[in-house]
Amino acid sequence: MAITMTEPAAKHVASFLANRGKGIGLRLGVKTSGCSGMAYLLEFVDQLDDNDIVFSDKGVSVIVDKKSLIYLDGTELDFVKEGLNEGFKFNNPNIGGECGCGESFSV
User: Residues 38-87: pLDDT tens digits?
Assistant: First the structure.
């Protein structure tokens, strides 16, 4: 089981953590939402919970709770710039389908 990051994603997260001045990493999770059933959740982590698993990649910690890991195992987090837009992209091998707007997914 693993969660990985591309170099651009790791640099972006490290920069945000440095600017924030605190935090041990980035939480990647899923929540029930959207028309396809699940949506990604990203938030900074200041303290670990009992159900957290920590993955370190390129000097950055990605924290995933055990329930979310079932849906996220093998995911690569990327940070992309497309024209004037930029943001995180989730390369998740577990996805069975996505909604038309790209905001939610199903497995």
Answer: 888 999 999 999 999 999 999 999 999 999 999 999 999 999 998 888 99
Instruction: Give the ranges where 1-107 is alpha helix by DSSP (H).
Output: 7-20, 66-72
Alpha carbon distance 39, 32 (integer Å): 6
CATH top-level class for 4-95? mainly beta
What pTM was computed for the model? 0.82
What's the CA gap between 31 and 103, in Å, rounded? 12
Map tokens 């959740």 to a residue.
Answer: 41
Q: What pairs with residue 69 in β-bridges?
A: none
